[in-house]
Structures are given as structure tokens and as C-alpha cells.
Amino acid sequence: MRVLELLLAPAVALLALLAPRSPLQDAGAPAPAPAPVAPSPIRQVILITLDTVRADKLGCYGYFRDTTPQLDRFAEQCVRFTRCLAPVSNTTPSHASMLTGVDPHEHGILNNFFNLPAEEQVGRALRTSPSLRSFAEVAGSAGVRTGGFVAATPVKRSTGLAAGFAEWTEPAPKEPRRIGKAVIADARRFLDGIDDLAGERCFTWLQFFDVHGPVRPPSTPPTKYTQMYRTTPELREWMAARGTAEELKSSHAGNMPTTTAHNLYDGCLRFLDDQLGPFLDWLGTPERRADTMVLIVGDHGHGLGQHEYLSHGLAWDEHLRVPLLVRAPGVEPGVVDTLCSTIDLVPTVLARAPSFADAAFSAQLRGRDLLSPDLEPRPLVANSAAQRPTLTLTTSRWKLVRFVDGTHELFDLEADPHELIDVAAANESLVQELSRVLLEEVDRQKRRRELHRHGAGAASGAIDPQVLEELRALGYTEGGDAGGEPEPDAGGD
């Protein structure tokens, strides 16, 4: 009971800021979360993160193209969350939040940082401490075998994200990325070894980068995929509904029609899906379903021309809304429409596999159990350090955008789900109330960050200078997702 109270405390505290009859209160009852049904003991937890995959591009989320037939089939075994948001739309900080269960202002990484001088990069890496630990660290301390298998430089060991993983593989030096099959091969070797040890528990993380641009060697999909999709009236209609620009300048390819960007993105997504297929089939066997919890999630989305932006790193819905599929023993498949966050992943795991961490770890977590039948909506904070720095607060109906200069935009998500019409001027009192809630929550996160820093351990070793060349190859040293020195955030400091 104490562990459950600690898990729910952050959500309860933030919801307490909203008066029962406040306009902040989410209208309408959320879809009930599927209740657990006689769960079997969980022996394995597998986290699969899909870099740069936005939810509305998957068939199981309603996309009109057959981009993800393998994931769609696997989704039939899962609880599918339709409104999961990342707290930031850059790779390194988003994964740091997933693995620690806290927001970026608390763990301190607000952006990617790879185009900084090498000596400064060390201090930007995730630094764990007695009060800020990663799930892999606490699971390893609890006797769980841990393995991390990643595909690209933004999550290499130098970022600090490898903390707690006893087995780890990443692209070789001088290689910025690798395709999904290489990640799967390493993970399968690890998992097959676990199977040979009767009763052993494990936490396994697989990270895939195939959908992230620019698309060029060594990860360029075969021509079959780059030419799989062509522009159709249906695509143009889908894009028009989202206010997509017709053409934008790409830092990787010059001026680009946004239809071309969508066609190529969809082909890369199908390339990833085809690689995942055999692994998902293996996870779908009866013996795996009996004792394995699987979480499949995007780390952030992608602009593709919406809000005049091709890349990611901003805080619009297309940058933050990601797919989330969760399969756990004893939990019936279903759909949950309640607003949720990727920081909720670890609490959801521990609600079903409490032996994977000590009870004290629960006090660190800011999320909640997404499979609880009592799941309630809560406001979610996100931030962007790219271009014009922003903070956002999203409820089931409203989204407030607060810019670094203190100005605001407000969107009614029920009437305007793609965030095209600013209604701040007509809702001044609501803007002020939402802004108060947003800034108070960000302030709490920053205060906790300072507490963690007092107990922070030594940073990781220096990053190899070759990393800079790897990141140039990935496009991180040019364009909107370059990262680097975060500008002042929209809440002040």
C-alpha cells in the first residue's frame, strides 16, 4: 500500500491544484483502463523504443497507409494508449525521462548536446545519484539481468543512458547508427542466454533509429521502401487537415516538397516494421505471453511540414504524441484514451513486477500505473529548447504554449486537435490559470533537480571526438534537431 501511495503522490499533488469546478478540469469521463486479470509472475520486461515515430502514422492508430502491419498485429495483444505524450521531442532527454521516470527539468537534460565542445559534453550526460537512479540500475541491484541494445549515437554510452546495463551494445566507433536487424540480433543473443538460466529475470531495452532522417548510408532502406509510397489525393487530404506546408527547406536535402518527406518517412517506417516482424512473432508465442511484459513506445514524433517544420524538437502535438503499446500477463487487450506520459512507463512496470526495484525507488517516480482501473487524467508538462524555447501544459481539452518572452498561445484540442487556431485572446482567465499551474510544476521539478545534484556521482568518461563526426552524419549538427546549448527555458530559472 505504501508503494502505491508513493507512486500516485505526484499525480495527486498536481491534480489538487485544479479546483473541482475549474475550467482546467478535463471534461468527460476517461475511457476505463483494462483491469488486470489474475496476472502471472513477470520474469522478463522488454522495452522497445522507436525513435522519431509519431502515433498517427501507424495503422493501429488509424493511418490510411499500410505502414505497420507487424506492429498492428502485435497491438491486438496489447493495451493501446491513444494520447501518450513525450515530455520533450529530442532523443537523449526523452529516453532519460523514460528510464528515470522523471521529467526533463528534474533529470536536467533539456536537449541533445552533441554539438558542444567535447569537454562540455561530459557534464551534459545523465548523472545518476542516490536520489535519481535509472530503472536499469535499481533492477540490476535487485538481481535482475539487464541488457541495452541501441542503434544510434544520441543514446550511446557517452550520454549516460547506459547506466545500470550489465550488457550493452551500440554502433561501432565511427558509425553513427545501425539498422534494426543488428539491434535485434544482439537482443536475441542476450534473451536466449537468459532462457538457458531457469528462473532468471531480465530487463531488456531495444532502441531503433530506422525512421530518423537523414536517410543515407549506412541505414538507407532498400529502394523497395524508399519508393514504396507515392503521393495520392488521400495523402494530400490527410496533410491539408493538419495545415501542412507544401514545401520547406531541409537542412539535409535543400528545398523539399512535404509530400516527398511523408512518402519517404512512411517507407522508412515500413522498413522498420518489416525488421521487427520476426521478433514480434517470437514475443507473441504463448510461453512469452505468460511471463513477459512488453512496452513499445516512440521517443518523440516528427514535424513533416506541420507548423512550418520538417524535423522535430518542438512541442506541437505532432512532435510529442507517440504510440504506446503495453502487453502484460493477465491484462486484457484494449484501448485507453486518457492523456498519459512516457514517464509513466516505469511505474506501470513496477505495479506488476515490484520485485524489479526496491521500495525506495518509488519515491523518485513522477508517473503513475497506466493499467490501473482507477487511472485519471492529469495535466502534462512538456518543453522545447529548439528555435523559440517553450513550455507547454496539456489537459484532455486544452493546450497552453508559453514562450520564453512570456507570451502565450492556447488551443482547444476538442475543436482543434492539430493546434492550428490560437484562442488565447478569448480565454484570458483560463490562460492565466493554466500558466500558474505550469510554472508551479516546472518550479517543483527544478527544485528536485537541485536536490539530486547535491548527491550526483561522477560523470561518465569523456566522449570520443569521433562522436562529432557521427552526429554530422546523422544531421544533428545542422537544422532544428541539432540540440546543443539549451537556450533559456520559457519559465525563467
Q: What is the H level of CATH, i.e. the homologous superfamily? A: Alkaline Phosphatase, subunit A
- What is the SS-derived class? alpha/beta
Question: What is the CATH top level name?
Answer: Alpha Beta
Structurally, the number of domains stands at: 1
Fraction of residues in β-strands: 15-25%
Separation of the first and last Cα atoms: 36 Å
SSE string, helices as H and strands as E: HEHEHHHHEEHEHHEEHHEHEEEHEEEEHH
Main sheet specs: 9 strands, mixed
Q: Counting H and I runs of at least 4 residues, what is the number of helices?
A: 15
Kindly report the average pLDDT value: 84
Give the beta-strand count: 15
Please state the overall shape, judged from the principal axes of the Cα atoms.
globular
| CATH-assigned fold name | Alkaline Phosphatase, subunit A
* Low-confidence parts: 1-33, 456-465, 476-489
Q: Kindly provide the radius of gyration, computed on alpha-carbon positions and rounded to a whole number of angstroms.
A: 21 Å
Tell me what the CATH architecture is: 3-Layer(aba) Sandwich
Assign a percent range to the helix content: 25-40%
Characterization of this structure:
Helix content is 32%, strand content 16%. The protein has helices at residues 2-15, 69-75, 91-100, 104-107, 118-124, 135-141, 180-195, 223-226, 233-240, 258-283, 286-291, 317-320, 345-352, 428-454, 466-474, and strands at 44-50, 79-85, 145-149, 167-169, 202-208, 247-250, 254-257, 292-298, 321-327, 334-336, 340-341, 380-384, 390-394, 398-403, 408-412. Strands 1, 2, 3, 4, 5, 8, 9, 10 and 11 form a nine-stranded mixed beta sheet that branches. The chain has a four-stranded antiparallel beta sheet with strand order 12-13-14-15, with helices on one face. The chain has a two-stranded antiparallel sheet with strand order 6-7. Helix 2 (69-75) packs across helix 10 and helix 7 (180-195) runs parallel beside helix 10. The chain is globular. Residues 1-33, 456-465 and 476-489 have low confidence and may be disordered.
